[in-house]
Automatic annotation (TrEMBL):
The lineage of its organism: Eukaryota, Metazoa, Ecdysozoa, Arthropoda, Hexapoda. Residues 25-40 have a biased composition (Acidic residues). It comes from Heterotrigona itama. It comes from the Eukaryota. Residues 15-52 are annotated as: Disordered. This is PiggyBac transposable element-derived protein domain-containing protein.
Length: 168
């Protein structure tokens, strides 16, 4: 079925079958027959100069939307931009945010409070323990013992103080 035949079928829908929306007269219907180009290359919005109504094609291939004009809707049409794919973008004014203020990240240079509190001056081990804590040391110990069991075939026990001595 061609595009013209589909459009003709849509135009011939009886009022009883319609959704009860805005009806158009015969004069407007004959004028609207010229609104659709024969090819589908047209992707532009169509806005009539009629003061009673504005006609807007939101996307190519969609049924036209009709709405009564008022100052707000005319302003919205003026603040709209249509993309190449037919998507209509509306410019909105930036307003103040209601509620919680936006999050602003304040970065302070230097070490964090946690590091300042837990590193003792002159103690390298305290600085090391901030990065590599006891949980990581226990994981290293378990993995080392498991590898020794696979390679040697016997259980091997690695004491934690020996691991710390090996690390430095």
């Amino acid at each position: 079925m061609s595009v013209r035949q589909l459009l003709q079928r849509i135009r011939n829908i009886s009022e009883a079958s319609s959704d009860g929306g805005y009806s158009i007269s015969e004069d407007e219907q004959s004028e609207s027959e010229n609104d659709f180009p024969d090819t589908e290359e047209s992707q532009h919005d169509y806005v009539s100069d009629d003061e009673d109504e504005n006609i807007l094609n939101v996307r190519r291939g969609q049924k036209r939307q009709r709405f009564l004009s008022d100052s707000e809707s005319e302003q919205n049409i003026e603040n709209s931009v249509t993309a190449r794919d037919g998507t209509v973008w509306y410019r909105i004014k930036e307003e103040s945010v209601v509620g919680r203020p936006p999050f602003s990240f304040r970065e302070v240079s230097g070490p964090t409070v946690y590091v300042k509190r837990n590193i003792m001056s002159g103690k390298i081990k305290s600085a090391f323990s901030v990065i590599i804590d006891h949980t990581i040391i226990d994981t290293i110990k378990k993995c080392t013992e498991a590898k020794a069991l696979r390679v040697l075939g016997t259980e091997w026990d690695l004491p934690t103080p020996k691991l710390y001595a090996f690390i430095g």
